[in-house]
Specification:
Among the domains are: 158 residues, Mth169, Chain: A (2-Layer Sandwich); 60 residues, no CATH class; 174 residues, Phosphoribosyl-aminoimidazole Synthetase, Chain A, domain 2 (Alpha-Beta Complex), CATH 3.90.650.10. 32% of the residues lie in helices and 24% in strands. The protein is built from 30 helices and 39 strands. Strand 7 and strand 8 form a beta hairpin. The protein is globular and about 85 Å long.
C-alpha cells in the first residue's frame, strides 16, 4: 500500500515568500499574488494508521506546522497547483534520511522494493494561463532529473488531489553479459564502438567509451592474442581505466620534443627538483601518488589537499553535479593514506553572465535546451552549499569568475583539505597497501544506474549524445556517517590495510587501482548491494553511484570491522578478494565474465605522440578616453562582475563550523571578500593553514605562458600578504582546457605547463597534487538550429597552501586606524592586456602582465620579515583591478577613508587610469602605524617601494595624480554600495 504524508506551515512561510520573489523575476511571474507550499512524503510500504501518525509527528514541528495522513492539504483559494518530484532512480537525499528515521522510530526495515519518495506542491494564486504556469515551473525544474505535474483548481478538486506517483525504478530486462565482436571489426567499426559505445540489440548505443582508433586497435590486438572476443564488461572496464579523466593521457603522452610528457617533465619534474634542493627542509610528504597530496603541518600532523573539477555533470544538472563534486573531493581526503579527516572545503566557479538569456540546444531539433547561465549558477552554488554544510565541513575559500566562454560548460572547481596524524599505530599514516588475501570491501551507498559512463563522459565534449545517467546526486548525510566511522574509529583500530574512494569509473577503477598494490583481484559481482534489481553486470561494475569507499580488510579483522560499521549505520559488504595472480577477474553468479592481465589493464594503452603548432593572435591596444575625474570609473570597476562582492555565496557557506576560522572569507566591518583564508586545523596549536587561489583566463588570449606565471605568482603572493613564508608554500594545479586534440590548443597547453616549471622552480614552491579536464567544449545549436561550438577560455587554476607559524601574528587586508601610513611595494607598469579594466571596455589589449620572480622573491621575503616583526597593520595583494580596486577594498573593509598620491609610484606607468588599474604582478598595499615608520622603511632597502598616502577618519577614497590634481574623491558608502550591487538580488 502507498501512503502519503503531507506537511505545511501554519504560519507565514519564508520558503514560499522567497520562491514567490524568485518567480516574479521571470515572465508572467508578476501575476503571482500568493504561494502556498506543501511538502509531500510518499511511502511505499504498508503501515498502520497509528504508525503513520507517529511518522507525521516526526516530520513536523507542531508549533509551526500541520500534517495530514493520506489526505490532501490545500489552501482554500488558489488558481493552480504544481507538483515537482524526482524521476525514477534519481538520488533523493531527503527521502533517504526520512526512510532511516522511520526505521529508527518504528524499528522496522524497508525491503529493496519499498521506499520513501519526496515531492513539493506549489499552490499559486494569480491570473495565469496553463502555458504561463508551465513556463514558470520550467524555471524551477531540471527535466533530466525531475518530473512535473500541473493542475488548475477545478481539476484538482475533481480528481481529489494530485496523482499519487511512486517513482520506482523498474528494470524488467534480462540480465545479460554480451560478447563484443571486435576481432572481426574493421577500423570503421572499431572507431564507431570507441566513440559511441557498445551497441544494444535495438541498434542504439550504451554511451561513449571515449576510446580512439589507436586504443581500439590495441584492445583488438590483445584479444587476438587471447584468442577470443571481449565481453562487454571487459571493454567497459578498459574504457574507464584508459579514459582521459583517469589516465591523463594528454599530460602523459609524448608531445613534440618532450618524450616523457608534460606532467613528468614539467609538473612532477619541478617538484622532484625542488624537494631535492630543500633537502632536510622539505615539508612535502606524499605527492602525486595518492588521492590527495600531503605536506607536514608539524611533527605530529599532516595536511592533505586536492582540488577537482566537475564541469560536464554541472552543465546538465548544476545542483547534482556540484554536490557530487564536493562530496567526491571530500572522499579524496578520506581516501588519502589510511584516511584523513576532511577539515576545509574550497570552491571556484567560472560561469557565463547570469543575465544572459541566449538559448542554446544540444540537439538539431531544438528539443534539448541547455539550462540558462543563471540556473547553472544558482544550482552549482546550492550544490556546494548542501554538500559542505550538511557534512559539517567549513567552506571558507572560494571565488567567482565570469566569461561568456563558459556558457556551454561551466567550470566547477571543488577542493578539500584533510588532516591526518603522521603515524597511525606504529605505521606512517600515508603508507597503505592491499595484501593478497585481503577482503575487497565496499562501504557506504548502494549501486544504481546513476553515474554510468561518468569518466568517459567527462573525457569528451558535451553534445546531444551526452548520457543522462552520467549525472549523480551526492548524499552528504550518508557520507558523513561513513567518514566518521572510518577516520574517527576504524582507522585508529587498524581494521584495514588500504582505502580509496569510488569516484570516476566506480568499482572498476577503485578495485583495479588498489589491486596494483598487491598484484591482482577477484570480484563476485552479484554480492554488490544494489539500490534496485535489474542492473547488468557491466553497469554494476562501472557505476559511479556516490558515497562509496573500497577497503582492503584482512579476514581476521572482518567481523570487528563489520560490527563497527553496522553500529554506525554504514553498510559494508565483502565483494571479493585481493590476490597476487597478476589478473583482474570478475565473476557473476559463478561465471567468469572478466579476465584481464593487470599489466594490460593499467599499462596497455599505447602512447599517442602529439604535435603542436601555435599562431599567437594580436589584440590591438584599445583607445580609451583619458578622463580628469575617475570616480565613475572606479565605481564601475567595483561593480564589475569579476571584482564585485560575492558575499551572497560566502555568507551561505558555513565557515565557522568546528571553530577553526582565523582569517575569514568576509573581512572587516565592510565585509569585503578576502583573497586568502586561514584556518587552525588543530585547536590549541599556533600553527595554521593559509589557502588561496588564482586564475587569469583572459591573459591566455595573449599569452598562455604569462597566464600561468601570473596565476602562480598571485596564489603565492596572496599567502605572503597574510603573513605566510615562501619556504612553506605548496601548489596545486588544475588545468581546464578545450579542444585538446587540436595542435593550437596543445601548443597553448605546452606554454602554460612550461611556465609552471619555470616559476615553481623560481619560487621553490612544489606542486603536490593536480587535476586536468581537457575537453571543455560544447557542440550544439543556437535557437535558429545553426551548429555552434563554445569552448572555454583555456583556464589554469593555481591553489596555494601555506603553513603559517603563528596564527596570532597574521595580517588582514582592511585598514585599521586613522593616521596609519600607506605604502606600495613593487613596481607598476602599463600592463593591462587581458585585465578587467580593458574588459570593461570590451577589449583585450596586447601588453599582458609578466612576472619577474627574482625581484618578487626579494619583495616577498622582505614583507614576511616585516610582518613577523609586527610592523604591518594591514596588507592586501594587488590582483584583479590593480591598485584602485585594492585601495578601495582596504578602505571599505575597515570603513575608514584613504588618501594617496600617484606621484612617487615605482615603475613605468604614466596614465593615471592605467596606473590605478594595471595588474602588474608582485605588488602589495601595506598600512603601517606612524611609530613603526622608520623601522619598517629600514626593511625595504633592497626592494622597490613608496609611501603613497595615509588612512583618514573622513570616509572618502581620495587619489591625487602625479601633478597633484584630485582624480578621485569618492564617498566610501557609494563605493561599498557599488561593490555590493551586482549580485544583491541573488
Amino acid at each position: 500500500m502507498v501512503n502519503q504524508i503531507q506537511v505545511t506551515s501554519k504560519i507565514a512561510n519564508s520558503r514560499a515568500k522567497i520562491l514567490a520573489e524568485q518567480l516574479r523575476q521571470f515572465a508572467f511571474g508578476k501575476e503571482i499574488k500568493r504561494l502556498y507550499l506543501v511538502d509531500v512524503y510518499t511511502i511505499d510500504k504498508r503501515f498502520k494508521r497509528e504508525e503513520l501518525e507517529k511518522i507525521g509527528l516526526m516530520l513536523t514541528n507542531p508549533v509551526t506546522e500541520n500534517f495530514a495522513v493520506n489526505k490532501e492539504i490545500s489552501p482554500p483559494k488558489f488558481s493552480w497547483v504544481v507538483e515537482i518530484g524526482f524521476l525514477p532512480g534519481v538520488t533523493d537525499n531527503v527521502a533517504t534520511t526520512v526512510k532511516e528515521e522511520i526505521e529508527d522510530l518504528l524499528k522496522v526495515k524497508f525491503s529493496l522494493s519499498e521506499g520513501v519518495y519526496t515531492s513539493q506542491r506549489i499552490f499559486i494564486e494569480g491570473k495565469l494561463k496553463f502555458k504561463e504556469v508551465k513556463a514558470l515551473a520550467g524555471n524551477l525544474i531540471n527535466p533530466l532529473i525531475q518530473r512535473l505535474e500541473i493542475k488548475n483548481y477545478s481539476q484538482f478538486k475533481k480528481d481529489g488531489g494530485m496523482t499519487k506517483i511512486v517513482p520506482k525504478v523498474r528494470l524488467s530486462k534480462e540480465i545479460r553479459v554480451d560478447e563484443v565482436d571486435i576481432l572481426g571489426a574493421d577500423d570503421n567499426l572499431l572507431t564507431k564502438i570507441g566513440r559511441e559505445g557498445i551497441a544494444n540489440p535495438d541498434g542504439s548505443s550504451r554511451g561513449p567509451l571515449a576510446l580512439d582508433l589507436t586504443y581500439m586497435r590495441a584492445i583488438k590486438k590483445y584479444f587476438q592474442k587471447e584468442g577470443r572476443n571481449p565481453t562487454d564488461i571487459e571493454i567497459e572496464s578498459i574504457a574507464q581505466t584508459w579514459s582521459e579523466h583517469c589516465k591523463h593521457t594528454i599530460f602523459n603522452d609524448p608531445i613534440d620534443e618532450i618524450k616523457r610528457g608534460l606532467f613528468k617533465t614539467y609538473i612532477k619534474g619541478a617538484t622532484e627538483k625542488i624537494r631535492k634542493k630543500k633537502g632536510r627542509k622539505d615539508f612535502c610528504v606524499s605527492v602525486f601518488t595518492d588521492n590527495s597530496g600531503a605536506i607536514a603541518l608539524d611533527e605530529n600532523w599532516l595536511v592533505t589537499a586536492k582540488v577537482e573539477t566537475h564541469n560536464s555533470p554541472s552543465a546538465l544538472d548544476p545542483f547534482g553535479g556540484a554536490i557530487t563534486g564536493i562530496v567526491g573531493v571530500n572522499r579524496d581526503a578520506i581516501g588519502f593514506g589510511l584516511g584523513a579527516k576532511p577539515i576545509c572545503n574550497l570552491y571556484g566557479f567560472c560561469f557565463a553572465s547570469p543575465w544572459r538569456e541566449e538559448e542554446i540546444y544540444r540537439d538539431e531539433k531544438l528539443t534539448q535546451k541547455m539550462l540558462s547561465p543563471r540556473r547553472i549558477m544558482e544550482g552549482v552554488i546550492r550544490g556546494v552549499n548542501v554538500g559542505g554544510n550538511c557534512s559539517g565541513i567549513p567552506t571558507p575559500q572560494g571565488f567567482l569568475y565570469f566569461d561568456e566562454s563558459y556558457r556551454g560548460k561551466p567550470l566547477v572547481f571543488v577542493g578539500t583539505l584533510g588532516l591526518i596524524p603522521r603515524r597511525v599505530g606504529n605505521k606512517p599514516s600515508f603508507l597503505k597497501r592491499a595484501r593478497p588475501g585481503d577482503y575487497i570491501v565496499m562501504v557506504g551507498g548502494r549501486v544504481g544506474i546513476d553515474g554510468i559512463h561518468g569518466a568517459t563522459f567527462s573525457s569528451e565534449a558535451l553534445n546531444v549524445g551526452s548520457p543522462v545517467g552520467a549525472v549523480q546526486i551526492g548524499d552528504p548525510i550518508t557520507q558523513k556517517k561513513l567518514s566518521d566511522a572510518i577516520v574517527k574509529e576504524a582507522r585508529d583500530l587498524d581494521l584495514y590495510h588500504s582505502i580509496t574512494d569510488n569516484g570516476a569509473g566506480g568499482l572498476s577503477c577503485s578495485v583495479a587501482e588498489m589491486a596494483k598494490e598487491c598484484g591482482g583481484f577477484e570480484v563476485e559481482l552479484e554480492k554488490v548491494p544494489l539500490k534496485y534489481p535489474g542492473l547488468d553486470p557491466w553497469q554494476i561494475w562501472i557505476s559511479e553511484s556516490q558515497e562509496r569507499m573500497t577497503l582492503a580488510v584482512p579476514p581476521p579483522k572482518w567481523e570487528k570491522f563489520l560490527n563497527l560499521m553496522t553500529r554506525r549505520g554504514v553498510e559494508a559488504t565483502i565483494i571479493g578478494k585481493f590476490t597476487n595472480s597478476g589478473k583482474a577477474i570478475v565473476k557473476y553468479k559463478g561465471k567468469k565474465i572478466m579476465d584481464l592481465e593487470m599489466n594490460f589493464l593499467h599499462d596497455g594503452l599505447p602512447p599517442r605522440p602529439m604535435k603542436t603548432s601555435y599562431s599567437p593572435k594580436f589584440y590591438p591596444e584599445p583607445i580609451i578616453p583619458r578622463l580628469k575625474n575617475l570616480n565613475k570609473t572606479l565605481l564601475k570597476m567595483l561593480s564589475w562582475q569579476n571584482i564585485a562582492s560575492f558575499e551572497f555565496v560566502s555568507q551561505q557557506y558555513d565557515h565557522e563550523v568546528r571553530g577553526g576560522s582565523v582569517i575569514k572569507p568576509l573581512i572587516g566591518r565592510g565585509r569585503i571578500n578576502s583573497e586568502t583564508t586561514v584556518i587552525c586545523p588543530v585547536l590549541g596549536l599556533k600553527r595554521g593553514i593559509a589557502v588561496s587561489q588564482a586564475l587569469y583566463p583572459r591573459y591566455g588570449l595573449i599569452s598562455p605562458y604569462w597566464m600561468a606565471a601570473c596565476a602562480i605568482d598571485t596564489a603565492i603572493r596572496n599567502i605572503i600578504a597574510v603573513g605566510g613564508a615562501l619556504e612553506k608554500i605548496a601548489l596545486l594545479d588544475n588545468f581546464c582546457w578545450c579542444s585538446s586534440n587540436e595542435p593550437e590548443r596543445l601548443a597553448q597547453l605546452k606554454q602554460a605547463v612550461k611556465a609552471c616549471w619555470d616559476f615553481a622552480l623560481a619560487y621553490e614552491t612544489p606542486f603536490i597534487s593536480g587535476k586536468d579536464s581537457m575537453f571543455n567544449d560544447f557542440k550544439g545549436y543556437d535557437k535558429k538550429g545553426r551548429p555552434i561550438k563554445i569552448s572555454v577560455l583555456p583556464t589554469l587554476l593555481i591553489t596555494s597552501l601555506g603553513i603559517v607559524e603563528n596564527i596570532f601574528k597574521l595580517v588582514s587586508p582592511e585598514v585599521k586606524f586613522p593616521g596609519d601610513l600607506i605604502y606600495i611595494l613593487g613596481e607598476t607598469f602599463e600592463q593591462l592586456g587581458g585585465t578587467e579594466y580593458f574588459a570593461l571596455f570590451g577589449s583585450v589589449g596586447s601588453n599582458v602582465p609578466t612576472v619577474n620572480a627574482e625581484k618578487n622573491k626579494k619583495i616577498y621575503r622582505t614583507l614576511t620579515k616585516a610582518i613577523k616583526k609586527g610592523l604591518v597593520a594591514s596588507c592586501i595583494s594587488l590582483n584583479r583591478g590593480g591598485l584602485g580596486v585594492a585601495l578601495a577594498k582596504m578602505a571599505m573593509g575597515g570603513k575608514l577613508g584613504v588618501e594617496i598620491s600617484l606621484k612617487n609610484l615605482p615603475g613605468g606607468s604614466t596614465r593615471e587610469d592605467f596606473a590605478l588599474f594595471s595588474e602588474s604582478q608582485g605588488r602589495f598595499l601595506v598600512t603601517v602605524a606612524p611609530q613603526n615608520k622608520n623601522e619598517f622603511e629600514k626593511t625595504l632597502r633592497r626592494i622597490p617601494w613608496a609611501k603613497i598616502g595615509r588612512v583618514i577618519s573622513q570616509k572618502k577614497i581620495i587619489v591625487e595624480s602625479k601633478d597633484k590634481k584630485e582624480i578621485i574623491n569618492l564617498d566610501l558608502e557609494k563605493a561599498l554600495k557599488a561593490y555590493k550591487s551586482n549580485f544583491k538580488n541573488f
